[in-house]
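May I ask for whichever protein you like with its backbone structure tokens?
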Amino acid sequence: MPAAGPGGLRLPRPGPVPLAGLRRLPQEGNAGTRARATRDAGADRCRAAGPRARRGAGAAPAPYAATFDTAAREQDDGGFFVGVQAGQGWIYEDVEQDAVAVSAGYRWQAGPWTQVGVELSGGRLDETTDGGWRYPKATYKALGANARMNFGESPWFMMVRGGYFDAEQDIPGGGDFSTDGGYAGLAVGVDINRHFNITLGYTGFVYADEYYDSDCDDDYTYDCDFNRADTVTLGVEARF
């Protein structure tokens, strides 16, 4: 039964509304709304994360160590080298002679901080006088092995070398003296850049003197005396 309205009047019950009369929102409008909501949420997250991201970027370590490590590994690829050394030498006890030397060779990479190779070298100890005595010039040639080891990422390194040499010396008043033997050396250096370094090194030369025209290979070993000559030099080296 229809319900009674005010004043006893009866209002008709509203009938069903036709579907055709309803208004639908366009789908693209809903999609645009969702897109705007997504963008707004993303912006909120970026604003919230911004201070943390900036603080994290500021806490990054200085790139020096990584940069040096890369440069050191780039320079430690092996290659040719040429060096020049100058300093003092001793053939006779307590008698100093000016010494100069040159060396050249090739090193192969043998590890992250190690190179090994071969070298040719030669040098001389100049003539000098001491206490009224004249000490003649001596020259030598050498063939040997050479190894270089860097101290980690540091530009400092150590070098060892050794091999065979032969030497000649003019004798005052005529004649000459020749001998051969072995040499060994140790040096400490620092890389100035990828192609250039400075070294301070010691080299010792061990050889046998022959007396009375006897050969040291004979059974009369008392005719032989083993001696040593030394050099201390400051050198520079270029690498290619």
Remarks:
- The CA atoms of residues 198 and 236 lie 5 Å apart.
- The longest helix spans residues 27-58.
